[in-house]
Amino acid sequence: MQKKIIALAIAGLASTAAFAQTNVTIYGVADATFDSVKATGGTNNPTTGAHSAAERLDYNNRNRVTSNSSYIGFKGVEDLGNGLKAVFQFESSVSQDVGTGGNNNRDSFVGLAGGFGTIVAGNLTGPTRALGAKFDVNSGATGIGANTALLGKLGGGSGAGHFDQRITNAIAYVSPTVGGFSGAVAYSTGFTTTGLTGHESMGADNTNQGNTAWTMGLNFETGPIYVGYAYTAVNAAGNGSMAADGLVGTGVATGWNKVDDHRLGVMYKAAFGQAGVMYDRARVDPTSGSDLKQNTWYLSGKFNLGKGAVIAQWGHAGDVKGNNVDKEGANHYVAGYEYSLSKRTVLKAIYSRINNKNNANYDYLYGVSAPNSTATAAAGLADGSQVSGFSVGLRHSF
């Protein structure tokens, strides 16, 4: 099940069949892969003697079992009459690889739906993240082949960039679909917990303002053609707290007022499968100096072969431009095969490789919160490293 914009998350709830149900629906995904990954050839790797924190050794043949985007969820709808519905959803991640319990850190909300559209409040997947996931050909848009390896990360780092994370403390409106068009807009009152309550845009002293965010998206779909656009802006209101909150890619200095991102994608679907192209433009407004900008492209394809499908995607992150920042780009190559044992169960095998330029350190999903899901240790990856890995596993939806 793909990561999805609020509209898609609610679409299943908002159907006539769903409204007829009076019971809570339990659903989820169990996804486990065996991964063998490595990172070698860093430009600042020491060969002998002591080395500093900025100099990382190679990581050879790191084997692990990863739970990827496994989760469990509960959702429901109540008919309030006159076309008005109450909707809710709670999703929690599950780490079956290490046997730990889940966290309520996935799409969770409560709201109202009707002919006017849907209004919800909670922890939400916004339009930018949803668009990136829609164009990712990996089942669940997760694992070492996910396009979050490069998108919106401004020079590198492990895990997903800030534009591809959920929006906390958010309220959102999702329009109905009219003539193939649909849209969404959302606002976060507190995108950070640094020095704040974790829910409010202003600290107790009325001066320590936290990061707020706006995001919007527009989709058009007719026949085999889909076109999507999304924009997200995160504001630090001049306090320069972006980097301290993990909202800027590693290697980019601290002190930013705002980061924003434009994302555009076009997809064609047919009997053969699908093919798509996506463009991403990330920008940072620093407290001093010129803006930083970076362009990233992804080409993706899925080609059906009976019950199976060959998947492939190529990503290119350009060099970071502006403010005398010496951060470069990378290329991401992905090839794999997925075989459907049933409508709910998929066997998959993926090869993924990131070729970093000399001053870049892009790494796989996720980050320091789940270091066993990265190609390297949580401490970081040497600039210029060549990151590669093979993954095989099973994904079951229920």
Oligomeric description of these chains? single chain
DSSP summary: helix tally: 3
| Largest sheet strand order | 1-3-4-5-6-8-9-10-11-12-13-14-15-16-17-19
CATH architecture classification name: Beta Barrel
Q: Please state roughly what percent of the residues sit in beta strands, choosing from under 5%, 5-15%, 15-25%, 25-35%, 35-45% or over 45%.
A: over 45%
- From the alpha-carbon coordinates, what is the Rg to the nearest angstrom? 21 Å
Low-pLDDT runs of 5+ residues are: 7-21, 193-198, 238-253, 366-378
Bin the helical content.
Answer: under 10%
User: Shape from CA axes?
Assistant: globular
Overall pLDDT level: 80
The overall number of domains is 1
Helix and strand composition category: mainly beta
CATH superfamily: Porin
Query: What is the name of the CATH topology?
Result: Porin
Top CATH class: Mainly Beta
Helices and strands, in N-to-C order? HHEEEEEEHEEEEEEEEEEEEE
First and last CA, distance: 10 Å
Number of strands: 19
Overview of this protein structure:
With 398 residues, the chain is mainly beta. The protein has a single domain, classed as Beta Barrel (Porin), CATH 2.40.160.10. It is built from 3 helices and 19 strands. The strands form 2 sheets. A 16-stranded antiparallel β-barrel has the order 1-3-4-5-6-8-9-10-11-12-13-14-15-16-17-19.
List keywords for this structure.
single chain, 398 residues, mainly beta, Porin, 16-stranded antiparallel β-barrel, 48% strand
